[in-house]
Amino acid sequence: MSRGRIVIGNWKMNPGSSAEAVVLARSVAASPLATGVAVAVAPPALFLPAVAEALRASPVGVYAQDVHWEEQGAFTGQIAASMLAPVVLGVIVGHSEVRRDQGDDDERVAKKMVRALAHGLWTVVCVGETLDAYLAGRSASVVAAQTAVIGHAVAAAESVGARRDRIVFAYEPIWAIGTGRAATAAHATICADAIRAELQRSAGIDAEAIPVLYGGSVTAANASAFADARGIDGALVGGASLKAEFGAIVAAFSG
Ligand code: PEP
To answer: What's the gap in Å between 240 CA and the centre of ligand 1?
Structure first.
């Protein structure tokens, strides 16, 4: 089955100003055209309109880094999917830094996904195990348990039905994020298999159609190993997406 390839740069709380974000976005758009791979950047929320405007004429998509699960209301500091939808192509939910800092659990991540899909946003759902779980050999079971909650939400939410084709998973082992210690491609494949098997079971969907990205210390040096790995359809890139090497990472995944 052929799935689309996707490489997304997660800029996190960088760069320091809207003007710098626009410059960075333009540099991504100016990189040689990648064939067979969708490229996107996820700037801080405040910079989304400026970056979206800078990329309007380019094929580079714009994603938000998070979204609230409710439609509207008394949720100080939050951004609704309906507010994002006119500006961005998609959204990341369940990033481990958001889980850590905002207390998101799998149920909340599932609710965010359902809301984002209901607004037609491509939705990247992040799952990944802690270092302890990895060392204990429990990576696959942890990501399967996280995926089960998402899968049940997919099965339960009628609004998701029409938008299942916009679900993307990102396997992001927490111990690999920002540490310079990437997982092996073989390990990423095992976890991608676990995600798809669980989605098939709990959501009853054709999980072979769901793209699974790898994220965690992806660099220009290791990108081709993940690009060649069975079951891995792209990358969610943090630190390296702020540098010129992002272009080389995209190139590694292009066909
Ligand atoms: C991320 O934050 O999604 C990520 C993968 O970060 P890094 O590439 O810096 O490990």
So the answer is: 8
Q: Which atom of ligand 1 is least distant from the CA of 172?
A: 5
Question: Across the chain, what does the average pLDDT equal?
Answer: 96
Residue 108: band (very low, low, confident or very high) from pLDDT cuts 50, 70, 90: very high
Model pLDDT for residues 14-56, shown as the tens digit of each residue: 999 999 999 999 999 999 878 999 999 999 999 999 999 999 9
Query: What does residue 175 show for φ and ψ, rounded to 5 degrees?
Result: -70, -10
- Active site amino acids: 95, 172
Domain formed by 5-243, architecture:
Alpha-Beta Barrel (3.20)
Which pLDDT band holds residue 201 (cuts at 50, 70, 90)? very high
